[in-house]
Write a structure and sequence with these properties.
It is a single chain. The protein folds into two domains: about 70 residues, Helix Hairpins (Orthogonal Bundle), CATH 1.10.287.90; about 90 residues, Sandwich (Immunoglobulin-like), CATH 2.60.40. It is α+β, with helices and mostly antiparallel strands and about 190 residues long. A hairpin with a 6-residue loop joins strand 2 and strand 3. The strands form two sheets. It has a five-stranded mixed β-sheet, with no helix packed on it. A two-stranded antiparallel sheet has the order 5-6. The chain contains two helices and seven strands; from the N terminus they run ααβββββββ. The longest helix has about 35 residues.
């Protein structure tokens, strides 16, 4: 759960979210190095005289500033593609949960069990107990086992919705007439809001 004035991400609960956090740090370091280099070059250009104007036309300089960005893009793209394929992978799920978005609530159905479905409505602000979170508390929470692969089938009855749990690294659109699929696995117990 995020807390007020938090600057970073929530604690990772799934292996996918841990990979996303590592990728974020990797990319942020590359962006920081590029920004530092550009700032250094700009400050150098503003404080010194350009005496070697012929170096700006050199073939070597053009080759370097063409190849270097390509290498940097590859350094960002390869880990990104690896995580993208990891997120799309389905490893023989132990449980399947069908999620349907409605105008003001979600419907959940455990498809592996007969007649196990329920609706989850948001608790109105006037009915919240002390310590409960506004716009996050519901009357029926989804209970899922930890350290098991779970397949979520997500769709919508009426309008576009978004089913998201940030600490699991999940965000899937619920679109009417379309069945989207995602997998999740929690590595620790807890109450996760989304």
């Amino acid at each position: 759960m995020a807390y007020p004035m938090q600057l970073g991400f929530q604690d990772a609960t799934s292996p996918i979210m841990e990979e996303l956090l590592h990728f974020h740090d990797h990319t942020l370091m590359i962006v920081f190095l590029i920004s530092s280099l550009v700032l250094y070059i700009i400050s150098l250009m503003l404080t010194t005289k350009l005496t070697h104007t012929s170096t700006m036309d050199a073939q070597e300089v053009e080759t370097v500033w063409t190849i270097l960005p390509a290498i940097i893009l590859i350094m960002i793209a390869l880990p990104s593609l690896r995580i993208l394929y990891m997120m799309d992978e389905i490893n023989n799920p132990s449980l399947t949960v069908k999620t349907m978005g409605h105008q003001w609530y979600w419907s959940y159905e455990y498809t592996d069990y007969e007649d196990l479905s329920f609706d989850s409505y948001m608790i109105p602000t006037s009915e919240l107990k002390p310590g409960e979170l506004r716009l996050l508390e519901v009357d029926n929470r989804v209970v899922l086992p930890m350290e098991m692969t779970i397949r979520m089938l997500i769709s919508s009855e009426d309008v576009l919705h978004s089913w998201a749990v940030p600490s699991l690294g999940l965000k899937t659109d619920a679109i009417p007439g379309r069945l989207n699929q995602t997998t999740l696995m929690s590595t620790r117990p807890g109450l996760f809001y989304g």
